[in-house]
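Example record

Each entry pairs one chain with its bound ligand, cobalt (II) ion.
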Amino acid sequence: MGKNIHITETVLRDANQSQIATRLKREEFADILETLDQAGYYSLECWGGATFDSCLRYLDEDPWERLRFIKSKVKNTKLQMLLRGQNVLGYSHYSDEFVTEFVKKSIENGMDIIRIFDALNDVRNMETAIKATIEAGGHAQGTICYTTSPIHTFENYVKLGKTIEDMGCHSLCIKDMAGIMSPQMAYDLVKALKAELKIPVYVHTHMTTGLGAMTYLSAVQAGADGIDCAISAFSGGTAQPPTETMVYTLNEMGYDCGIDSKATKKINDFFKPVQEKYLKDGGLNPSVLSTKIDALNYQIPGGMLSNMISQLTAMKSLDRLEEVLSEVPNVRKDLGYPPLVTPMSQIVGAQSVSNVLGGKRYGNVSKEVKAYLKGFYGTAPGPVNEALQKEVLGDEKPFTGRPADTLESELPAAREHLGKLARSEEDILSYVAFPAQAEAYFESREEKEALKVSYTIEEVK
Ligand code: CO
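Structure tokens for the complex follow.
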């Protein structure tokens, strides 16, 4: 048998997030967890990203409880989560104490691999999470957010990969959130990284532009150690390339994915009716399943494009879309070419709309762009537009430190605010991450239990 290729199944996290806005309920996957565990996957991506928020906001589920439940059924396969570095699961920076405690509790509750990224590829925004993961005995996977620009050269990516390895990460992931990495790029980048690094290299992409499966094949041929796939019922479009197709192809070429095809058939048979249910009730919009070549033409993620379309529609200015789309690369250049991933995709998109509709470029600079130019998101990947930065800063000097160094722990105030409503340290962490959603969840939990107690008393009578 040839080289072993690790397959990570994303149906519970990224595919769930990309296709049905993270609405998968626990009872919709509970009965297949044991089969997922036995299928031979390297890991099961099941937490982080939007899953946490969605559990509290829409599903009336405790995200920590969900994690413990998955762990109780998945005993052999590693569980994996996505973490936005110092942003944890949110859109802004948190204190080191919160990041450390969150990581520690994630691992205590069953997490094995934590994939850590920063939207600017600023390693200072990843270092606390990496350190905490290693200290808690977890597997720290450092991440390169993939994008294209004049400053995102192979040399820079390899340098970044090397830094991530030197920080003690157990593995590296190339994260292509927009699905724009071509097979040739993947081949060259993986080759370059494998030549320099000792740690395993994983590749993550989406099928949005139709490149995904080819990109994975090239990456594996260049020496990648693992790829993220989605079981076919939830694959394709904005989600990952199909697990079964990749395994079939790679096995035939002499690679060993370790996947039991009887198990993947069972898993797919299980998820097919789930997908059909979401298609029927509108939870799955068929448009996310088709190939969107615009992302290649404009080099912007599909999600960002649909956001801008709805923003412009609301402003009755959809006829300005082409102008806005051609403004995006200009704004991105002014900001030193940030990768277009949360939160930068929203920040660049909104400023581009404002620049076009406002009639004057930067006539109105958003508070996020101001904070960015002041240095509060981290270091811009490339040089920013100096005139613009000067205009925003005035006489102020840009902040060049690590943004989290300015932050105090959020935990004491959260503890005090919640009082008895919090039943565990995990509850405190949920509250810091999503205050309104977590508090509403805790209150409804109290009410439900009070109701249960009164029923029991009735029955006794
Ligand atoms: Co993704």
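The pocket of cobalt (II) ion is lined by residues 14, 177, 204, 206 (CB under 6 Å).
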